[in-house]
Amino acid sequence: MRPPPARGRHRIRTAPSGYPHRMAPEDDYTAQPFVPERGGLAALREAAAGCRGCPLHRDATQTVFGAGRADARLMLVGEQPGDQEDRQGRPFVGPAGKLLDRALAEAGLDPADAYVTNAVKHFKFTQAEPRKRRIHKAPTLREMTACGPWLAAELDRVEPELIVVLGATAGKALLGSSFRVTQVRGTVLEEEIHGRPERLVPTVHPSAVLRADDREGAYRGLVSDLEVAARVLS
Predict the structure, then answer these.
(1) What is the SS3 string spanning 131-181?
(2) What is the pLDDT of residues 171-228, one digit of tens each?
(3) HEC secondary structure over 79-130
(4) pTM of this prediction exceeds 0.90
(5) Which of 136, 138, 145 is nearest to 173 (CA)?
(6) Are 194 and 149 in contact (CB under 8 A)?
(7) Strand pairing category for 74-78 and 114-118
């Protein structure tokens, strides 16, 4: 049995010509070699800072790992960091995060008691010119899958009683490509996620509320879905 490649190193592979060539670790599209088997959230966060599990790390400022209580009963999973999160290194610190905190509090959930993270840990964006505004770009299924080992490790360490799924991308990362948030939002799902039985309440991503034509109506819908989560945990 061949030993696994050294963590974070370039690997030698054989090209169709028969000659070896070097491949960077991100070409494998998996974070698994970077995820430590032991240690708590602090060890995961430290290791994630050096993740090269997919090409997204090349343009992002830094890894944005999850944050919050290690014993949280509630885990909230979003899509990926935004511009402010990428700059500050913490999830949900931009406008969408502030709206989410307000909605959680209104639904009877204390944001300080939750653990928040994203399905993808690096900011993916487009930028017309240097120093121009960076525009969010949705991660691909391949990129979400590559980052899956980090989310699996967070679930293993936190062991939440309930997961709130924020938006379609997070739903697809957790529940598969057929997930449609509009079909199941505000309901309680019971599924096996990364080998663990989990309860989940899907809802829209708070950034979708900020983009909505009827922002107040969209916000009330988010609060209503979070109230379902509050009842599950009560």
Answers:
(1) CCCCEECCCCHHHHHHHHHHHHHHHHHHCCCEEEEECHHHHHHHHCCCCCH
(2) 999 999 999 999 999 999 999 998 889 999 999 999 999 999 999 999 999 999 999 9
(3) CCCCHHHHHHCCCCCCHHHHHHHHHHHHCCCCHHHEEEEECCCCCCEECCCC
(4) no
(5) 145
(6) no
(7) parallel
In angstroms, rounded to a whole number, what is the distance separating the alpha carbons of residues 77 and 117? 5
Return d(Cα 99, Cα 92) in angstroms, integer.
9
Q: Are 156 and 40 within 8 A, CB to CB?
A: no
Phi, psi torsion values for 71, nearest 5 degrees: -110, 25
Instruction: Decide: 115 and 72 in contact? Cβ < 8 Å.
Output: yes
**Listed residue (172, 166, 127, 113) closest to 147, CA to CA:** 172
- The token duo for 6 is 């050294």
Query: In sequence order, what are the beta bridge partners of 136?
Result: 125
The owner of tokens 């204390």 is 110
Which two structure tokens, joined as six digits, stand for 147?
A: 């980052």
> What is the Cα–Cα distance from 68 to 42, expressed in whole angstroms?
11
